[in-house]
Amino acid sequence: MNHNASPATPGSPSGRRRGRGALGSSPVQRVQRPAPLRQAVYDALVELIINGTLKPGQHLVELELAELLGVSRQPVREALQRLQTEGWVDLRPAQGAFVHLPTEAEADQLLGVRSVLETYSARLAAQQADAQDVERLWELQREGERALADDDVDGLVSTNARLHAFITELSGNAVLAELIALVDRRVRWYYTPIARPRGHDSWAEHAELIRAIAAGDADTASQVMNRHTERTRQTYHERRTAAGDENTSG
Amino acid sequence: MNHNASPATPGSPSGRRRGRGALGSSPVQRVQRPAPLRQAVYDALVELIINGTLKPGQHLVELELAELLGVSRQPVREALQRLQTEGWVDLRPAQGAFVHLPTEAEADQLLGVRSVLETYSARLAAQQADAQDVERLWELQREGERALADDDVDGLVSTNARLHAFITELSGNAVLAELIALVDRRVRWYYTPIARPRGHDSWAEHAELIRAIAAGDADTASQVMNRHTERTRQTYHERRTAAGDENTSG
DNA sequence: CCCTGGGCTTTTGCATACGAAAGTCTGTAT
DNA sequence: ATACAGACTTTCGTATGCAAAAGCCCAGGG
């Protein structure tokens, strides 16, 4: 997923006809319809925001972004519209776009919303999952436990994400899945500095959750997921507080 | 709205006319930023979609919309971006925008999501509401019961919406409030043809809910709201089925 | 009769142009 | 030195222009 814009000036063809600049050559081009540039711009900007190149509060000048990505202002503007709706940037009339600067309260609210959405998805998943799905869940669980044993942090994060995503998918509720994906991405962004996996406890909870889903016990699955996500929320809160103390003391 | 009627005369910057500093010092400088056209276009299109002028599945030609609204294609395109993100239209690359055509499954999924979100908002509201808030809730409740007694359907719908909105506001979770607002608008659109209020039962449930909130009993408030929204969902489902039968039989 | 393909029309996607608003700087008067 | 007014600069918001993709129509062949 690394389609970063090259730092060098994109040798702008700029003679009359457009050339696809730094973007446009996505590794995933299996789609019949070539994705419009605005989509590539959107992807690039989300990436730049998440990886911190574009910092919260920063003013995004359309022309700069356009040149950085080797396109004109128009696709940038269209991407910004979407980014605003999804909460990544704020658009102030006649002033332009600013990378959204989340307050502490907002970040926590987002965690709360994610918690209830994931809890609901666990409930639905318990009602939907068949034996094959459950087998896949255990597979992911084993993978996570292996990563845990190996101290493989990246693997842990990735497996955790895939496990939750699979449960969401199992829910069979596409609207829910979309919302969770969006909220989750924002949560991860806000909490990037402290987003280490919780480790053993977390995976014990996962196992409990999978058992409930396997049993088709929606109430238990819901309860377990709720506890799980609320603990994650609590952990984040503690770590943020600790980080804040460190900052104020040092 | 077309403010480019006169021929362009490049060369004179003409930055002279500015209406700000000429007048004396007014102590109150109410700087009201004019909403961009794209906002007006967005509002207009949502209205046209909700009121059925633009029908589900219909192809929206940018130029037609632009002429209809008296603007150029550009603000229309930007509005369409937002409309897509919010689920009102589908944007197909190189084909344009189509008014979103919800499947039955999707509509029901939205009701499910709305249900959990509102349930969560009731839980939070119960933890947050003070005596004054509760008084306001009872006020709305009385207003609803009056409308019920008067067979005032519009008043019933409006008061119901305000009651739910107030509870959402009481939750103190802005992220949640935004999501609910969005989901709710789509739900109302989908179910417009059958969206009569449920009437008496519904308001009895409201009263029960308010009592729980007044008592600060978050668990009960949550439970009651969940039952309430799930019943609404069930009612919609029944009505849709009935309407579908009528259609197929006639 | 149905399928097919090549030109014509429509519509999108992107680029560019330009007026206007917001922000910035500078010189002057107090 | 400070505060303010006015120009200067930057950036936004919108309109317009143009090439390419998609859709359409109709003639010709299986």
TrEMBL record, chains A, B:
Basic and acidic residues compositional bias, start-end: 227-243
Keyword entries, A-Z: DNA-binding, Transcription, Transcription regulation
PROSITE patterns cross-referenced by the UniProt entry: HTH_GNTR
Compositionally biased intervals (Low complexity): 1-14
Region (Disordered): 1-31, 220-250
GO molecular function, one term: DNA binding
Transmembrane segments: none
Gene3D superfamilies xref list: GntR ligand-binding domain-like, Winged helix-like DNA-binding domain superfamily/Winged helix DNA-binding domain
Domain HTH gntR-type: 35-102
PANTHER family, per the entry: GNTR FAMILY REGULATORY PROTEIN (PTHR43537:SF45), TRANSCRIPTIONAL REGULATOR, GNTR FAMILY (PTHR43537)
Protein name: DNA-binding transcriptional regulator, GntR family
Source organism of the structure: Goodfellowiella coeruleoviolacea
